[in-house]
Amino acid sequence: MRHSLALLVTTAMCAVLSPWSASAADQADQISRGQYQAILGDCAACHTKPGGQPLAGGAPLETPFGPLVPPNITPDLETGIGSWTAEEFKTMMRTGIGHGGKRLYPAMPYPAYTKMSDRDVSDLWQYLTTVQPVKNEVEANQLPFPFNIRFSLFGWNLLNFTEGTYQADPSRSDEWNRGAYLVTGAGHCSTCHTPKSIMGADQEGQFLKGSSLQGWYAPDITGGNHTGIGSWTSDDIVTYLKTGVGTKTIASGPMAEAIENSTSRMEDADLAAIATYLKSLPDDSKATSTALPANDPRMIAGQAIYRDNCSACHSADGKGAMPLFPALSGNQIVQQGSPETPAHLVLFGSQGAQTDARPTNPSMPSLAWRLSDKQVADVLTYVRNSWGNAAPAVTESDIKKTMESR
Fold first, then answer.
1. Binding-site sequence positions for heme c
2. Which residues pair with residue 321 across a beta bridge?
3. What pLDDT digit, counting tens, does each position of 117-131 carry?
4. Which end of the chain is more exposed for a tag (fewer CB within 10 A), N or C?
């Protein structure tokens, strides 16, 4: 009798507690999935400024139209998204129209986020509601007239934006579709790597062909061998995204930040899917470049500067010493149409990504203190046209523009 009573009480308690436990477990799973969506979307890169509170608002983004400041997306009721509803958040991710009908500028990559599934958007929302609320008022729109008029975005969307979730290609593998979903959706790779029109929209037919970004150049990541990643294997891509170090290059600038905050924390299966998708992008580049002759005065001057300032690390033959000193020969970053990234590295130096897989991050010192604009232009011209490389010569004007972008 005593045993039967105990069993009855235990059964009753389980009946009461099980629904609550299942619900709590489901919610915990959703929050965990949402945290991963924040990693995939690299939310911290824009919405957390250096030294600031997580997701409480970021440092200004310098756009061709003026500065925009990523807002506070913590659940603070007054200065964050604490007064938003889940439906408002979904609408914002889908259409770029936020709380109170306010239109967002496409620097917030809703043209990519619109491709995310309802479940992933819902999971992200649930996660954001659990982060530490931070009271931090952010004036996001700091654009000059007339770009500060948000109603103009109505016309921008009509011309440049298509709403809709990602539709899988049934002729492709599940891995390829997962990679396409991540690259075109949450990962919003096109935001940096696709050239922009005069209106700031992705140029048609130039998907992931490379674009200028706040004094850096986000390189071509399509299938070309010269400026793209056609010579990279899938394993090369995965290793680079996981560690920040590739076969010939080391991540720098905004890409180093993206690797630290996002790709290095992705699941290996997702990195493999991204690699599979990127490797499928065709090499349809029509651009060609012929190396400058060795007797060109700029090449002669650049060679001397390289020998005195660069060869100790990158070697006289440009082969470097990976994983600390990247190879310059056959380096796609060096051969991009724009010299912005190598110019930025020489002028300001750089710190590589620090990841769990490679905690010791290499660095490049600034040489601006010892080289004139002409010397920087000459040494970059030499690097871009030696050891089988071929790219347009760099001018003093190019260097001055990079200096002004800082």
1. 43, 46-47, 189, 192-193, 310, 313-314
2. 325
3. 999 999 999 999 999
4. N
β-bridge mates for residue 383, sequence order: none
Domain 297-405: CATH superfamily is Cytochrome c-like domain (1.10.760.10)
List binding-site positions.
Answer: 43, 46-47, 189, 192-193, 310, 313-314
> What is the distance between the terminal CA atoms of the chain, rounded to a whole angstrom?
81
354 near 344, Cβ under 8 Å?
no
For the chain, how many residues are written? Answer: 406
Q: Rounded to whole angstroms, what are the CA distances from 224 to 13, 190, 192?
A: 64, 17, 18
d(CA 366, CA 264): 26
> One fold for both 174-280 and 297-405?
yes
From CA 217, how far away is CA 234, in angstroms rounded? Answer: 23
Q: How confident is the model at residue 316 (pLDDT cuts 50, 70, 90)?
A: very high
Tell me the three state secondary structure of residue 317.
coil
pLDDT, tens only, 64-80: 777 788 899 999 999 99
| pLDDT score of 289 | 80
pLDDT of residue 146: 59
Q: Domain 174-280: which CATH class? A: mainly alpha
Sign of CA dihedral 144, 149, 152, 156: positive
The torsion angles phi and psi of 62, rounded to 5 degrees, stand at -85, 110
Kindly indicate the confidence band of residue 294, based on its pLDDT and cuts at 50, 70 and 90: very high
Extents of the domains making up the chain = 29-137+144-160, 174-280, 297-405
Query: If we measure between CA atoms, which residue out of 153, 145, 90, 97 comes closest to residue 116?
Result: 90
pLDDT on residue 148? 60
Contacts of 199 (CB under 8 A, 6+ apart): 156, 159, 160
Per-residue pLDDT at 175 exceeds 90: yes
- Please, which residues bridge with residue 363 across strands? 351
- How many CB atoms sit inside 10 A of residue 9's CB? 10
Residue 269 vs residues 58, 178, 179: alpha-carbon distances, Å: 30, 9, 10
